[in-house]
Amino acid sequence: MNCIVAQSGGPTAAINATLAGVIKGAFINNFDNVYGSVNGIEGILNDNIVSLNVFKDEKKFALLKQTPSAFLGSCRLKLPEYTENEEIFEKITAFMLEKDIKYFFYIGGNDSMDTVAKLNRYVKAKNIDIKCMGVPKTIDNDLPVTDHTPGFGSAAKYIATTVREITCDSRVYDKDTVTIVEIMGRSAGWLTASSALARRYEGDGPHLIYLPERDFDIEKFLEDLKAVVKKEKNAVVCVSEGIKDKDGTYICEKTSSGLFDTFGHKYLSGTAKALEDLVRERLGFKVRGVELSVCQRCAGHIISLRDIEEAVLIGKSAVEFALMGKSGEMVFYKRVSNNPYKINIESHNIEDIANLEQRVPCNMINNEGNDVTDDMITYLKPLIEGEYPVVYENSLPEIITLREIL
Amino acid sequence: MNCIVAQSGGPTAAINATLAGVIKGAFINNFDNVYGSVNGIEGILNDNIVSLNVFKDEKKFALLKQTPSAFLGSCRLKLPEYTENEEIFEKITAFMLEKDIKYFFYIGGNDSMDTVAKLNRYVKAKNIDIKCMGVPKTIDNDLPVTDHTPGFGSAAKYIATTVREITCDSRVYDKDTVTIVEIMGRSAGWLTASSALARRYEGDGPHLIYLPERDFDIEKFLEDLKAVVKKEKNAVVCVSEGIKDKDGTYICEKTSSGLFDTFGHKYLSGTAKALEDLVRERLGFKVRGVELSVCQRCAGHIISLRDIEEAVLIGKSAVEFALMGKSGEMVFYKRVSNNPYKINIESHNIEDIANLEQRVPCNMINNEGNDVTDDMITYLKPLIEGEYPVVYENSLPEIITLREIL
C-alpha cells in the first residue's frame, strides 16, 4: 500500500509540519511507501517523485516539522476540467496506479483544493480506485469551513511579535512619527488583524488597523492618524496589502507593478510605500513604511507550538479519513470550545471549499473600520499559544532540505 | 553618590542590556541614585529624567535586558563645541551638579561618542568633577578600536536566520527566480556580511553578497547573477543599502527620497527595489526585493546570548572604569582568542573613536567583491552564539516600557 503527498501554493512555516503529519499517519498505518511529488502535482506529471521513507529517522522527522517553506517545493499549476482535457488526468492516474499509489494527499490553500476537487471528479467519473484528500494550508486563513488554517497561527505569532518590536522602535525619538506596516492579505484581513495581539495596554500600538474587508477612505485615514499622533506622538498603523478605496481601486495601484499571477490575482506591493508618501505630503509627519514581506510566511524561528502540533495532527488525520474511504474531502478544524480551547478534526466535501474565500466577518471589525473587536482577539489568542522548541545548530535554527534526502 | 545614563542614536536589540549593565554596575558599587536621562542628552537639557532605582526589582531588571529599542528613548542631537556655545554645557553640568551626579554614561554609536568627547573636553577645561564614559552600541558594528559592538551580534543572528528562511522560501517554485535582500549599512558592510552565516552547504544561499566597501558594478552584478541562476535556479542576493557605483552614486539614488538626517548622512532606501527593477528589465527573471528594514535592529525575540551577556558586562565595566577615575574614554571589547573565543573589556580614549568609522577590511571580502571570505566567517561566528532565553507572556516576548516605571 503506497501513498503520495504534495504541497502547493505559497509556502508557510507549518506546511512541512503537516507534511510530517501525513508521513507519520502513513507510517502508523503501515503504508509500504510514502512518496513525495516534487513541485506539487507537477512532480507526478514530470516523473519527479521522491521516497519519504527516510523520515523514519527521528532526527530528520523532527527537523522537517520546524523547517519553513515547502520541503517538496510548490507549484501554481491550475488543472483544467477533465472534460476539457482528459489526457492530463489519465497521465496522473496512470502514473499513480503504475506505482500502486491509491492515496493522494494535497496540502494547500483554496487554489490547491481546486486541484483535489478536479482530480477527485475525474477518478469518480472513471471509477478509479484512488482516494484524493485535501489538507489545508495557508497563512492567509481564508479557507471556508475550517476554524483556521495550519500556518496561520505561526504567521500571526510572528506578526504580533514583530509589530510589538516595531512599536518599541517607533517611539525612541521625541517627535511625531508614523510607522506604516504592510501585512500580507489580498482580500482577507486575518493576518493584519493579528497585529492587534501586540498590544499590552490601552494606547499601545498598533493604533490603527485597516483590513481589506472594509473600503479604505483616505481622508478618514488621515483624520484618524492625526488624532493618534496628537494623543500618542508615535503612531503605528497596520494595513493589509490589499486595501482598496470605495471604487475598488487598490491603494497601492499607483506604485504597483501590475503583474498578475497564474490564478488571476493582482500582484500587490507597495501599499505601505503609497501611504508613506501620502502621509508625508499631506500631514508632513516623519513617516516610514515597513513591508513584512515573505518573512511573515517563512519565519520558522518563531512558530506557534499550537499551530505546529495541530498541523501535524491534521496531516495525520487526513490519512486516517482516507483510509476510512473518504475522498474529495478536506480535513478541517472545528472549534468546539474557547475556554478551554479545544478543536476536533473533521472532514468536509471539498466542493464547498475549493476556490472560495473566508473573509473576516463583521463582528470582528469595529464600526469605524479602523480596528478589530474583542471577538477577533478571543478568536486569535489560542492560535499563537506556546513556543515551539526550535532546534538550533551552529547558533541558527536548523532545517532540512530536499537535497539532503536524495 | 549618583550617576546618570542615557541612550543615543539608532535603537538595537541589546542597548537595553547595556543599560541594565550600567544600572547593575551602579547598584553593586553602592550608588545612591541611578538616573536615566530621557531621549539622550536632551533629557538633561529639558529636565526630563527618571529614577532607575526601580530596577532593583529582579523581574523588571530581567525584562529590561530582553526589551529591544532604547528604553530611555534616543536623540540625534549633535552638541556644538563648547568654545562655540558654552551655555549648553553650563546647563548640562549645572543640572548634574545640582543633583549631585558625578558620573555620566552615554550608550551610543560614533555620533554619540562625539557628544561624550565634547562634554569631556568641557569638564576637563573647566575642571569640573564629572566623569564622562562612552559605552558602545550599534548594530552597524562600525566603531573603531572595539572588536565588535553590542547589538551587532543579535542583529547578525536575526539576519542570518532570516536570510536562511528567505532562501527556503525562494526555492519553492520550479522556475528561475531572484530574491534581493536589502540589509542596513550605509558605508560599512558588517551586517550584510553576516548573511553568509545562513549557508549550510556549498551552493546554498545567499549566493552573492555585496558590501559598500567595494564599488558596485552593475554589469558585473548581472553577469554574476546570470551564472548563479544558471547553476542554482533560485538566486538569493544580499546587498547593503549603501552600495554605490565607481562614481560614488548610490544604487538606490533613482528611487531615494533624498532626505538627509541631522548628521548629514543621506537617507537611503530602495536599493533592493532599484535592483529588482534592473534585474526584471535586463534579465527578465522573476525577481523580488525584500527590505529587512527596522526589524533587523529591534528583533528582541531572537537575540544572541553572547551579545546580551557581553552587553550587560560592558555596561557594568563602564561604571567600574569611571570609578577608577577614567573619563573621556569608551569601554570596548578586545578579542584575545578565537578558539576558544575570549574577550577582555578595556577602555580607550574617545577622541580616537568619535565620528570615526570601522569598515570591513580587505581580507574579509573576496577578490571579486561579491562574497565574504573565511576570515569574515571566523570573525562572525562567535558573535551570534547561544540563544537568549526570552521570557514570554501571553505567548509573545514580554517587554518593559518607560511608562511602566513612572
Detailed description of the structure:
- The structure is a homodimer of 406-residue chains.
- With 406 residues, chain A is α/β, with parallel strands linked by helices.
- Chain A folds into two domains: 2-138 and 146-151 and 300-356 and 385-404, Rossmann fold (3-Layer(aba) Sandwich), CATH 3.40.50.450; 156-298, Rossmann fold (3-Layer(aba) Sandwich), CATH 3.40.50.460.
- In chain A, 34% of the residues lie in helices and 18% in strands.
- Chain A contains twelve helices and 13 strands.
- In chain A, the strands form three sheets. A seven-stranded mixed sheet of chain A has the order 3-2-1-4-5-10-11, sandwiched between helices.
- In chain A, strand 1, helix 1 and strand 2 form a beta-alpha-beta unit.
- In chain A, helix 1 (15-28) packs antiparallel against helix 3 and helix 1 (15-28) packs across helix 11.
- The radius of gyration of chain A is 22 Å and the shape is elongated.
- The two termini of chain A are 22 Å apart.
- The model of chain A is unreliable at 255-268 (pLDDT under 50).
- At the A-B interface, helix 6, strand 9, helix 10 and strand 13 of A face helix 6, strand 9, helix 10 and strand 13 of B.
